[in-house]
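Memo to structure team: turn this sequence into structure tokens by end of day. - J.P.
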Amino acid sequence: MSKYEYPRLPRHEITAVLAESQIAAVSEADLLHPDPDFICNLYTHIFLDMDSQQEDQGQMEFGALEQLENPDYHAHSVQVMNLYNKIRQLIAAVNCPKGFTPKDLIKPEPDRTELFLSALLNFHLHRNTKLDLLKPIGDDLDILEDRRLAAEARMAQLNAEIAECEELRERELPLVQEVNSKVKELHQTVSGLNKHQMTLKTSMNQVREKAKELDVQISNAEFALVQSVQENANLRSKIVQSPDKLQRALEEKKSVLIETKNAERTAMQSYQDKTTTFEAYDKVFFFFFFFY
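Reply from structure team:
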């Protein structure tokens, strides 16, 4: 049964459940005529199967017997009382309509015995069903517990490794500080070299600018030199190598100039003569035209 309930089981079902659960081999006749020792033994087997006794039963009974003067005479009574308390508490916990009394152990009645057995066996079946449902969870819990233990072991190992690393770090701390100091010095050196490099780059740029200016000046000087060479060549070509030739050339040019001037005077004289003649003709023509 998946849901707990305590219907009154028939005697044949009670015997069947006891047999299937391997609690006890009981016949219907045993339930019709219940014997006190048989009933106590049956209840004990049911509780042992359910494992409801959380403490060692023998240890509990021994502790109770120590309080008595003659424990040997009361051993059975203590066992019966412990069993009675267990049955009474469980019957009350499952809300059985009838309460369990000492008489149900000392002088059991068939009807009440069947009712209490029905309640206990129904609870037993219900409990087993729930345990079966919880078994995968229990298995998972076992797996998780194993993982937890493995994780704790791993954590312990890692903590040991961390402690070892911390110890090693403490031992190497002076060396690390020395290296850091050298690195700091190197950084400062690199910074100084970078500044020096920037200064050199600036100087190089200035030198390049001056070189460009000098290149321009050299180009201009070369161009001026070429022009000077050309002008010098022209002047050299104009220089007269022989003074006699120059004198003859001057005399020839002077003679040509005189001839030119004479021709100019002759031309001017001829022009004036022609102008005078033209004016005379013009006057004659005017006079002739006026009178005729």
